[in-house]
């Protein structure tokens, strides 16, 4: 349930009942997938409600707007302040925050919008992909070609690719898809980045055909702080046969284990993998608990 009759959303400068936050069917965004958005989480910490990496998320929202020519009239600070207020007005501490910038003006032209609309909605959302290790399958759909779209921008229209890939994978009995890039290298999931573990080190796709996730960056930082080498490099699906474990990362999914990719079953359980250890460090970080990063961490993970 994303909203009830009591939910308040921020829409174009006002806090309004979510039921009244509507958009007309002639909107340019609706016809052409011409919108940008963010997925952010707030956590209940000992210091109160804290939005995790609000600045990074709202800087990415600005970057995404610029990439597709949608004006955004709010600063990072204003967006952050409004987000806290939406949480407060809904009495939410642990919540998912969805800012959406779109063009509501009736406009069937293919010209960039000259004005935009802003929605900030919040709701309670458990881990998007659940907390059981996932069975993935390589998707017949590739990630969009980065020469066709600004792939590092979080554009509404890009998610048609995610929807069809995820639906196709589930239709074949898997939990989620894993998409390759146009050169046949493993890129990412429909809404999360992908890592694998081999010989005590981590591997993940580099910049190119992925959304460089904020969770991905956080996990890379946590791993490196713990003395674990992280390689950002291109790899083919065949290389997964040499992996002992894998996991995915995203704001909505957080850190989730991968049991298998097609017929490749990983030997380590998530709990005993580097990903499992980093998941608990990630949880401690976002919820503001003391993080014990000792020298034995890297050793334990091996
Ligand atoms: N890749 C894609 C395609 C995504 O939609 C997301 C979710 N935003 C991610 C990766 C993970 O990004 P983040 O960690 O910033 O949520």
TrEMBL record:
<keyword id="KW-0028">Amino-acid biosynthesis</keyword>
<dbReference type="InterPro" id="IPR043131">
    <property type="entry name" value="BCAT-like_N"/>
</dbReference>
<comment type="function">
    <text>Acts on leucine, isoleucine and valine.</text>
</comment>
<dbReference type="GO" id="GO:0009099">
    <property type="term" value="P:L-valine biosynthetic process"/>
</dbReference>
<dbReference type="GO" id="GO:0052654">
    <property type="term" value="F:L-leucine-2-oxoglutarate transaminase activity"/>
</dbReference>
<comment type="similarity">
    <text>Belongs to the class-IV pyridoxal-phosphate-dependent aminotransferase family.</text>
</comment>
<protein>
    <recommendedName>
        <fullName>Branched-chain-amino-acid aminotransferase</fullName>
        <ecNumber>2.6.1.42</ecNumber>
    </recommendedName>
</protein>
<dbReference type="GO" id="GO:0009097">
    <property type="term" value="P:isoleucine biosynthetic process"/>
</dbReference>
<dbReference type="InterPro" id="IPR043132">
    <property type="entry name" value="BCAT-like_C"/>
</dbReference>
<dbReference type="Pfam" id="PF01063">
    <property type="entry name" value="Aminotran_4"/>
</dbReference>
<dbReference type="GO" id="GO:0009098">
    <property type="term" value="P:L-leucine biosynthetic process"/>
</dbReference>
<dbReference type="GO" id="GO:0052655">
    <property type="term" value="F:L-valine-2-oxoglutarate transaminase activity"/>
</dbReference>
<keyword id="KW-0808">Transferase</keyword>
<keyword id="KW-0663">Pyridoxal phosphate</keyword>
<dbReference type="GO" id="GO:0052656">
    <property type="term" value="F:L-isoleucine-2-oxoglutarate transaminase activity"/>
</dbReference>
<dbReference type="InterPro" id="IPR036038">
    <property type="entry name" value="Aminotransferase-like"/>
</dbReference>
<keyword id="KW-0032">Aminotransferase</keyword>
<comment type="pathway">
    <text>Amino-acid biosynthesis; L-valine biosynthesis; L-valine from pyruvate: step 4/4.</text>
</comment>
<dbReference type="InterPro" id="IPR005785">
    <property type="entry name" value="B_amino_transI"/>
</dbReference>
<dbReference type="InterPro" id="IPR001544">
    <property type="entry name" value="Aminotrans_IV"/>
</dbReference>
<keyword id="KW-0100">Branched-chain amino acid biosynthesis</keyword>
<comment type="pathway">
    <text>Amino-acid biosynthesis; L-isoleucine biosynthesis; L-isoleucine from 2-oxobutanoate: step 4/4.</text>
</comment>
<dbReference type="InterPro" id="IPR050571">
    <property type="entry name" value="Class-IV_PLP-Dep_Aminotrnsfr"/>
</dbReference>
